[in-house]
Amino acid sequence: MKNKFRVIYEDLTQKIQSGQFQANDLLPSENELAETYKASRETIRKALKLLSEHGYIQKMQGKGSVVLDISKINFPISGLVSFRELAEKMGKREQTEVVSLENHLMEKEIQEHFQMCGQVESWKVIRVREIDRERIILDKDFLLASVVPGLTKEICERSIYSYIENELGLTISFAKKEITVEVPNAEDQELLDLAGYDTIVVVRSHVYLDDATMFQYTESRHRPDKFRFVDFARRQK
């Protein structure tokens, strides 16, 4: 039998997804929800906490629980976060398909990103990210096999970053990113549900360990309607 707070969470989730509660609406107060669901305020708080963790609401001081726009996903520009970490905030709304996983000598075009030459062994991973049953992200990752050995399809389905940090004991430190808007290519057309959009947002990242070793080059291609690219900027004089 499910905990009552989870039953309340699932009911409120359904109401948000169906549009009964829309973006920027205020949910009823904790007291009103407690009366509606015949539950304690502590149970309501647990349900609201789950809604917040999964990206459905935001608690606003003095206002209450504001419904977020679930049609767009906040994608941090300056942060270094894996898709899995973003997905954890979305509950069961995501799925990853590993289209291919190859171990071979790095192509010259990719070597230029790593500023390497000669024979360099690397992984090439192509993954499609599905959210709410729509294929909206195409990730193409190139990783140094000498730094990241033993990749498997299962690791790529879960989280490469989790494997690097928790299994290999390495520290991922920073990335340099470039964001462009481009025309979809044939691969985008084949692997993504573009829904008629004639542009995609491409984020190219060069990712480094804490010793400044570049171990990954990534090209992440996003359908433009599903993401809000966000950052926090501070003015310095």
TrEMBL record:
Keywords: DNA-binding, Transcription, Transcription regulation. InterPro entries: Bact_HTH_transcr_reg, Chorismate_lyase_/UTRA_dom_sf, TreR, Tscrpt_reg_HTH_GntR, UTRA, WH-like_DNA-bd_sf, WH_DNA-bd_sf. It comes from the Bacteria. SUPFAM superfamilies: Chorismate lyase-like, Winged helix' DNA-binding domain. Residues 2-70 form the HTH gntR-type domain. Pfam families: GntR, UTRA. NCBIfam families: trehalos_R_Bsub. This is Trehalose operon repressor. It comes from Halalkalibacter alkalisediminis. The gene is treR.
